[in-house]
């Protein structure tokens, strides 16, 4: 089967050993985190396609409430990854979503030290760093009219 949307591609790729947790419990928590991230992504996408910036202030006002569970999860997992001690689908989704939000509002992570450290550490991983420096990533709009 050929997937044409990003999320199904990630789900298919994540079924490879290692990206979907070490057991069924980890897989269930990864699914839960991924669903929470999809909820936030859907709010973000809705904001991006509004005709004007009228919803931005309200969105940014509620963003800390949406980010708090991820901060708490990272803190309780010693800041390494969302689930377990290895990177997963949920981690990649969170990193990209955090990058998008920093373009939208650079200080959005100021109240979240675990998310800041996490993002910095994961963005420094060689393969992810190379992708983030690539023309493919840099030329992809993050906000309509804005690039990374």
From TrEMBL:
GO terms for biological process: glutathione metabolic process. It comes from the Eukaryota. It catalyses: prostaglandin A2 + glutathione = prostaglandin A2-S-(S)-glutathione; 11(S)-hydroxy-14(S),15(S)-epoxy-(5Z,8Z,12E)-eicosatrienoate + glutathione = (11S,15S)-dihydroxy-14(R)-S-glutathionyl-(5Z,8Z,12E)-eicosatrienoate; RX + glutathione = an S-substituted glutathione + a halide anion + H(+); prostaglandin J2 + glutathione = prostaglandin J2-S-(S)-glutathione. One of its GO terms (cellular component) is cytosol. Residues 23-142 form the GST C-terminal domain. One of its GO terms (molecular function) is glutathione transferase activity. InterPro entries: Glutathione-S-Trfase_C-like (IPR010987), Glutathione-S-Trfase_C_sf (IPR036282), GST_C (IPR004046), GST_superfamily (IPR050213). PROSITE patterns: GST_CTER. Conjugation of reduced glutathione to a wide number of exogenous and endogenous hydrophobic electrophiles. Involved in the formation of glutathione conjugates of both prostaglandin A2 (PGA2) and prostaglandin J2 (PGJ2). Participates in the formation of novel hepoxilin regioisomers. Negatively regulates CDK5 activity via p25/p35 translocation to prevent neurodegeneration. Homodimer. Interacts with CDK5. PANTHER family: GLUTATHIONE S-TRANSFERASE. This is Glutathione S-transferase P. It comes from Hucho hucho. The lineage of its organism: Eukaryota, Metazoa, Chordata, Craniata, Vertebrata.
């Amino acid at each position: 089967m050929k997937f044409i949307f990003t999320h199904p591609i990630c789900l298919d790729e994540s079924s490879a050993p290692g990206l979907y947790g070490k057991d069924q419990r980890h897989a269930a928590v990864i699914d839960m985190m991924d669903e929470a991230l999809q909820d936030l992504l859907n709010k973000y996408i809705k904001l991006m396609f509004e005709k004007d910036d009228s919803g931005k202030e309200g969105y940014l006002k509620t963003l800390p409430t949406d980010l708090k569970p991820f901060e708490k999860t990272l803190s309780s997992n010693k800041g390494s990854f969302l689930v377990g001690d290895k990177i997963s689908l949920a981690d990649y989704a969170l990193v990209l979503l955090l990058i998008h939000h920093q373009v939208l509002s650079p200080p959005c992570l100021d109240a979240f030290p675990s998310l800041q450290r996490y993002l910095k550490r994961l963005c420094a991983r060689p393969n992810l760093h190379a992708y983030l420096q690539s023309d493919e990533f840099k030329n992809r709009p993050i906000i309509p009219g804005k690039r990374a």
